[in-house]
């Protein structure tokens, strides 16, 4: 039972990040390219809730977030979603350009 709880917490933190980094970033940053902002915020809220109940469990969560597999996986996800964001921005610019040149005749 304890192992499954630890696994669930580790998976939640997989979507999160280190706590100071989460607290320093806004969910609504407009030019933020990675898509991990909302999971980071959720992880921060979970950490804060757990911290109020049990500081030992909160320390476990913080340590789990710093585990090498979690950090490597999170870095990979950020890198790939950033690439997708850039491609999506380029696609939007191309569509705007086509709209202005072909449809509106600018």
Automatic annotation (TrEMBL):
<dbReference type="GO" id="GO:0042627">
    <property type="term" value="C:chylomicron"/>
</dbReference>
<keyword id="KW-0758">Storage protein</keyword>
<dbReference type="GO" id="GO:0004857">
    <property type="term" value="F:enzyme inhibitor activity"/>
</dbReference>
<comment type="similarity">
    <text>Belongs to the apovitellenin family.</text>
</comment>
<dbReference type="GO" id="GO:0006629">
    <property type="term" value="P:lipid metabolic process"/>
</dbReference>
<comment type="function">
    <text>Protein component of the very low density lipoprotein (VLDL) of egg-laying females. Potent lipoprotein lipase inhibitor, preventing the loss of triglycerides from VLDL on their way from the liver to the growing oocytes.</text>
</comment>
<dbReference type="GO" id="GO:0034361">
    <property type="term" value="C:very-low-density lipoprotein particle"/>
</dbReference>
<dbReference type="Pfam" id="PF05418">
    <property type="entry name" value="Apo-VLDL-II"/>
</dbReference>
<dbReference type="GO" id="GO:0045735">
    <property type="term" value="F:nutrient reservoir activity"/>
</dbReference>
<keyword id="KW-0732">Signal</keyword>
<dbReference type="InterPro" id="IPR008404">
    <property type="entry name" value="Apo-VLDL-II"/>
</dbReference>
<keyword id="KW-0850">VLDL</keyword>
<feature type="signal peptide">
    <location>
        <begin position="1"/>
        <end position="24"/>
    </location>
</feature>
<protein>
    <recommendedName>
        <fullName>Apovitellenin-1</fullName>
    </recommendedName>
</protein>
């Amino acid at each position: 039972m304890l192992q499954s709880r630890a696994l669930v917490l580790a998976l939640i933190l997989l979507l999160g990040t280190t706590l100071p980094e989460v607290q320093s970033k806004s969910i609504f940053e407009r030019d933020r390219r990675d898509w991990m902002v909302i999971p980071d915020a959720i992880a921060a809220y979970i950490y804060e809730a757990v911290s109020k109940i049990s500081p030992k469990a909160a320390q476990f969560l913080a340590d789990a977030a710093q585990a090498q597999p979690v950090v490597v996986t999170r870095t990979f996800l950020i890198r790939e979603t950033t690439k997708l964001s850039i491609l999506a921005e380029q696609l939007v610019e191309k569509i705007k350009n086509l709209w202005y040149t072909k449809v509106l005749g600018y």
